[in-house]
Structure formats: C-alpha cells, structure tokens
Write a structure and sequence with these properties.
alpha/beta; Rossmann fold; Ubiquitin-like (UB roll); de novo design (two linked rop proteins); four-stranded parallel beta sheet; four-stranded mixed beta sheet; 16 helices; 8 strands; 10% strand; globular; disordered N terminus; iron
Length: 451
C-alpha cells in the first residue's frame, strides 16, 4: 500500500495553495525534520498565532473556516473548542490528540505522523494556545512504532528549539507534549474511552454529559481532536478563512481538503489529499485507476469498515458528509475499499463482525451479546447451515444495535455494513440457508424478541 498524496499517475503537482496538508512531503517518503520543515514555512503559523492573535480569535478563526473533525464523526472543531470553559481560574486543562487509528482500511493519520510529525506538533501548539491548555498527549495506536519513534524525535527537536516547554516564543505560555502509546483497542477511538485508557483505567466509554470539555482527563477540562483535524489548523491560521473555504468543490458543505484513499484490488491503491466534493468516481477511476484487469467492482465502502456498502452506481456521489449521506451511508474516514466480484459478501461480513465483536468493550448488553450472536449466524450461513429466519434475526440485530440503542457508537458502526450488505446482496445470504428438511427444531434456535 502506497502512502502518497500525488494525483493521477503522479501528474498533479502539490503546492501550499492547493495541498495544505501534504505539500511539504518528500518524494522519497522520508520524514521531514525540523530544519527542513521550517525551511518550508513550518511554525510560521504558530509564530503568527502567538504574536498577532488573541486566544479567542484563534478559536473564532477555526470556527469560521468550517473545519470539522476528520476522525469520522465530523463535529465542527471550532464549536468543540468553544465548549472549553472560559473561567481563567481553571489553570489545568488538557489537549489530547486521538491517534488511535484502528479503523480497518484507514491509514491516513499514520502517513502524517510518520512523514510530517512537526505539522501535527505545530497544530497542537496553536490549538493549545487557543484552548489555554498547558499539557498535551498524543494517544497513539501501539502498533504504530515508526510513528512513535518519529513523533518522539520531533518533540525533542521542538523542545530544543524553544517551540515546546516553558515560555514558548517568549510569550509566557507553557505547553508540554507527550507521546503515549496505547495497548491496542479499537474502542479507544471513542474519546472518553481514550481518556479512561490514558488514566490507566479500562477503556470503557463514559456517560455524557458531563462532556470532556467540562470533566475530562483526571477530572479537568479536556479537548480531544483527531490527527488530521489538528494538522489543518496551521494552514487556516497562516492563510485565512476565505482561502481555506475556497479549496472545497462547489456543492460541498464541508470545507477544505481531505485525505482520501482507495484500497482493494484497484490498480493504484493509495492515499491522496483532495478537495471535499470530488466524486467517488474520480477517486476510484482517476486516482485509484479502477479495478485491476480481470476484476469487476461489486461494492465499495466510502470510509472504513464501519460505513455501509454502496454499489458501483453510487460512485457519482460527492465525497463529503452530506453527499455520501444522500446515498445512504456515512463519509467516515474517507478511505474507501473496493470489493471485487470474487468476494462472497457473507464471508466478508463474518470477518468484519468478528473484528467488531472482539473489539467491543463489553460495557453494554446489546453490543456485548449482539455482535457475537451476529457472528454465529453469519458463520452458519457461510457454511450453508443457516436456518429459515436467520436473515430476519440479523436484520433485527441491526435494529437493536443501531444509533441510540447502545452506550456508544461502536455497535451502530459495526452493524451498518451488515444491514447494507443484506439490503444489496440478500441473495448471497439466502444461498446459505439450509433446506427446510434440514432445519433445526424451533426450540433449539435463538429467539430475538421483536425481530
């Protein structure tokens, strides 16, 4: 899998005017360290924020730019920042970077941390200034060992240059930054589970309210933002709101650019920085090059394993939250997966649901018991041993585990691809139902109340 931000056949030139996240990338894929980063206008936005902007003005600028979270939920960043308390007497606040990138088929944050670690640090530094936070943590997926190594080196470089630590840039503002590697749990992508894990507790989501902005890590006001989200901040501060909004395609309600990708049996799997509003077809055909010879596109997911499947006719949807919602699913992380015509959807869903069942924190009953139940039914159907009513039971679980039915969004994300797969490929599920003569007696089958 390539980690690149180039355009079709590497013919599109990246520039600061059009590719705020990736224009500094080296062609050889090596990390951009402090000297090179500063030579490419690095930390200029931080200097501007510290010298020329009041803290509330930074928050307002990010809000006016329309920056939204890039981790999948898409909540407006400036609004989230505005939830932090204004009381100056609260002098202990935290900024957490959610770098626990465990969504299957997603690797965008990894690229930024491995190749542009100082971009993330600068984004966190400006954000910390705006939020009056004195300490920050990058909560990193434990398997990202190269990212951990590069981030730690970049933190030390920034400290030595007076860009982290005490009295940053002579402003009197102090900010310490630490890289914290997690133990490897998907649920840590949920911000309150991340907070519990950082505190050394079991990674269960917390009840909200209170929200982290009021009661977060160690009971103090806390803001949690995604890696890609924070990496957008320097360009917004340096070049302004109007420029940032102009980057998106006409019709998009989301502003700026987005790291998007395509994996699967496509000719050119990879990662590209593209304006919000490009179509799925452009991403698939112009950038990913379409399917490899001998394969046909059967279905695709627009943004990670927790998003619903779409059909080839949905490729003309625009890649932004509202555009993907129009065809029945979510933008998610923006990294798409192509499913080719050799893949059996029942087997694919069984594999997915096994992952989600294993990664459930077990805190609430629908998720803890419902996901393993879906796996058992899918395994039976996959082996041709499904019983009449199993598909209806699966659809019942999709409803029982949907939005608002569980403590956090883990289960709704887990069953969204299941529901869409049955919707579009029900015949493949029906093919795994055993003849009636081979059916298990009714009392031996599980019963779903309300299914």
């Amino acid at each position: 899998m390539t980690l690149t931000s180039f355009g079709p056949a590497n013919r599109i030139k990246r520039s600061a005017e059009t590719h705020p996240l990736t224009w500094r990338l080296r062609d050889d894929g090596e990390a951009v360290w402090l000297d090179e980063y500063q030579a490419k206008n690095g930390y200029a936005a931080a200097r501007k924020a510290f010298a020329d902007m009041a803290q509330d003005d930074i928050v307002q600028t990010v809000k006016d730019a329309g920056l939204k979270g890039r981790g999948g939920a898409g909540f407006p960043t400036g609004v989230k920042w505005g939830l932090m308390p204004k009381d100056e007497s609260i002098n202990i606040r935290y900024l957490l970077c959610n770098a626990d990138e465990m969504e299957p088929n997603t690797w965008k944050d990894r690229m930024l941390m491995e190749q542009l670690p100082h971009l993330l640090i600068e984004g966190m530094l400006i954000s910390a200034r705006a939020l009056k936070t004195y300490r920050g943590y990058i909560f990193l997926r434990g398997e990202y060992t190269t990212a951990a190594k590069h981030l730690n080196r970049a933190v030390e470089e920034a400290k030595a240059a007076g860009l982290l630590g005490k009295n940053i840039l002579g402003s009197g503002f102090d900010f310490e930054l630490f890289v914290h590697t997690g133990a490897g749990r998907y649920i840590c992508g949920e911000e309150t589970a991340l907070i519990n894990s950082l505190e050394g507790r079991r990674a269960n989501p917390r009840s909200k309210p209170p929200f982290p902005a009021a009661v977060g890590v160690w009971g103090k006001p806390t803001c949690v933002n995604n890696v890609e989200t924070l990496c957008n901040v320097p360009a917004i501060i340096a070049d302004g709101v109007d420029w940032y909004k102009s980057l998106a395609r006409e019709g998009s309600e989301d502003m700026g650019t987005k790291l998007m990708g395509f994996s699967g049996k496509v000719k050119n799997p990879g990662l590209w920085e593209l304006p919000f509003g490009v179509t799925g077809r452009e991403l698939f055909e112009d950038y990913a090059g379409g399917m490899r010879d001998g394969f046909k596109l059967k279905a695709w997911q627009p943004g990670g394993a927790g998003t619903g499947f779409l059909l080839p006719e949905h490729l003309d949807a625009q890649m932004y939250a509202g555009g993907i919602a129009k065809v029945g699913t979510r933008m998610g992380t923006g990294l798409a997966m192509a499913v080719d015509d050799s893949v059996n959807m029942v087997s694919l869903l069984r594999n997915m649901e096994q992952f989600f069942a294993r990664e459930s924190c077990g805190f609430c009953t629908p998720c803890r018991d419902g996901l393993p139940w879906s796996v058992k039914l899918l395994m039976a159907i996959e082996n041709g041993e499904g019983q009449p009513g199993d598909i209806e039971t699966l659809l019942g679980l999709v409803g029982f585990l949907g939005p608002g039915k569980t403590f956090c969004a883990h289960a709704p994300g887990a069953v969204e691809p299941l529901g869409s797969a049955i919707k579009y490929f029900r015949h493949e599920f029906e093919a795994g139902i055993a003849p009636v003569s081979a059916a298990v007696p009714p009392l031996a089958r599980p019963i779903v109340v309300g299914a």
